[in-house]
Amino acid sequence: MPRLKWVEVCGLRSFGIEQSLIFDEEIALVWGGNSQGKTSVAEAIEFLLSGTVVRRAMLGGAKNEYDRSLRNAYQPDGELTVVRAGIEDREGKERRVERELTADFGRGQDCASRLMIDGVEVQDLSSIGIELAEPPLRAPVLFQHSIRYALSAAPTDRLTYFKALFEIGDLDALADALKGVIDDLTEPPVGMESEITACSADPVIRPVIGDLLREESLTESVLSDRLGNACRAGVGALSGETPGPEISLGDLRDQLRSEVEKVQRGRFDLAAWRPGSAPEPPEADLEACRQYAAAAASIDLEVEQLRAVYDAVLRVPAYEHLEHSVRCPVCDDGTLTPERLSVLREEVVAGTNLRQRQSAARRELQTVAMRVRSVGDAAARLAPGASQYDSEQLAKAEASAAAVLGEAVTLSASGERARELGRSSGSLTDAVSSAESALAAASARLDVLAVFDPGEIVNALANVGTAGQASQTARDRFLARPTAGAGLGGAQ
User: 302 — phi, psi (to 5°)?
Assistant: First the structure.
């Protein structure tokens, strides 16, 4: 199913400047007080998918009440009114979707727009797996007015809408296709002769599964039934309690694995010598952060904080073509000249550019932060439990290994390599913590439009990479097969 990953809105409805939202999880909550833009976010997504909003058609009143209702009233002339989004298609590839408003509602006419996928103009989103419902409720976005319509519509229309909303319309076609062939289906034979032969050699399992290789029709259901009986027998032999017939094969398998691991731990705790996977080092060029830093360095922050005031002054119609000095409406005792207005326009344009770069830098930092967090999670699981063994625990492990192998075993070398891996993973955790602190500091400065040095983050990421490489080397050394008399290697 296609999934929305992020969305940017600029110049649509209440979004006078570019705003962005990132959806990291399958479910996202957008929270805000009244008149803070929640409906505008939903209508931006609706516009992106369908090229219109249904509010105009659903609610009462004259159509001209909604004239020029999509484009933000304060959007400067020449600025685009556009919604962009990253949508993951059914193959898991992120596609860049963009819809630009080319004509707003007006004089009884619908709005018009241009839709592009990855820079190529298209008519709809069917190529990335998004099929819309029939009008008027085309987009899978629910509003109060659209719910009222759907619930009051004819049953067939209501069913069609909700099928499109939840993307289950194709299930009917699939069900019809299956009905035509399901009676002709038979269970295929199971090609597991080698596995069955190995199981049949076990004195506990053979009486339970029987001679499966002589079955005339060894189907998956027959094998599943016999393996379930075998798992019950195995669990009973190891634990003394045989599971009942209501337990599924999957649960029986998990119980058997758990009982086997208990026996293994009683002899030799293999899991304590098994390291975690080596983390992938985070990489980022931080180009968006560099562009933001350059733009922020050229902006007077105090001036930027007054940009909304400047913007309001510039929107006064009398000042649009001012040719002589007038009294300043803000400071009252100052003078507003054409030259000063020109400077204010430049400040507003520069501030708008800074806000756009701020949004791009924020997305970049969030992406890097997720990658660093992933490395930290891997680092926490990297060192095996044996890295914490003291001399007494190591001696017990040697005794258990000797009992299993029937000969003396020395684990001092393996224990030292485990401790080395533990130290390396600790250093990696410290490097990750420093990188997260650098990212948090940069994000805090970004939130207040302050300058920060992307080079500090690059250096912190480089330290994570170096520590990660050292951990990888320590892990490889731990897993290496020991020389004669050196003890046991790590458990793969």
Answer: -65, -35
Indicate the SS3 state at residue 457. helix
* Amino acid occupying residue 38: K
Q: Which domains does the chain have, with CATH numbers?
A: 3-172 (3.40.50.300), 193-267 (no CATH), 287-479 (no CATH)
- At position 390, the amino acid (one-letter code) is D
Please state, in angstroms and rounded to a whole number, the distance separating the CA atoms of residues 313 and 350: 16
The pairing of beta strand 326-327 with beta strand 120-122: unpaired
* Per-residue pLDDT tens over the stretch 240-277: 888 988 888 888 888 888 887 776 666 677 788 889 98
**Distances in Å between the alpha carbon of 407 and those of 103, 256, 399, 402, 479?**
84, 29, 10, 5, 22
Q: Whole-angstrom Cα distance, residue 240 to residue 234?
A: 10
pLDDT digits (tens, 9 = 90+) for 8-60: 999 888 887 888 899 888 788 888 888 788 888 989 999 999 998 887 777 65
Distance CA 4, CA 93 (A): 12
The candidate with the shortest Cα–Cα distance to 294, out of 343, 344, 349, 354, is 354
Q: What is the residue type of 347? A: E
Are 58 and 146 contacting, i.e. CB atoms less than 8 angstroms apart?
yes
Q: Beta-carbon neighbour count of residue 365 at 10 Å?
A: 23
How many CB atoms are located within 10 Å of the residue 153 CB? 15
Residues 6+ positions from 167 with CB-CB distance below 8 Å: 1, 131, 140
> What amino acid is encoded at 87 in this protein?
I
Token couple for 260: 């086997």
Euclidean distance between CA atoms 434 and 464, whole angstroms: 9
What distance in Å separates the CA atoms of residue 341 and residue 442, rounded to the nearest whole number? 34
How far is the C-alpha of 62 from the C-alpha of 105, rounded, in Å? 12
Burial class (CB in 10 A: 0-12, 13-18, 19+), 142: middle
| Cβ 461 vs Cβ 283: under 8 Å | yes
What is the rounded distance in angstroms from the CA atom of residue 104 to the CA atom of residue 112?
7
Token pair for 106: 């007006």
- List, in sequence order, every residue forming a beta bridge with 120; answer none if it has no partner: 117
Q: What is the model's pTM?
A: 0.45
- Look at the block and give the residue holding tokens 């505008």: 40
161 to each of 44, 57, 127, 175, how far by Cα in Å?
A: 20, 16, 21, 19
Radius of gyration of the chain (CA): 33
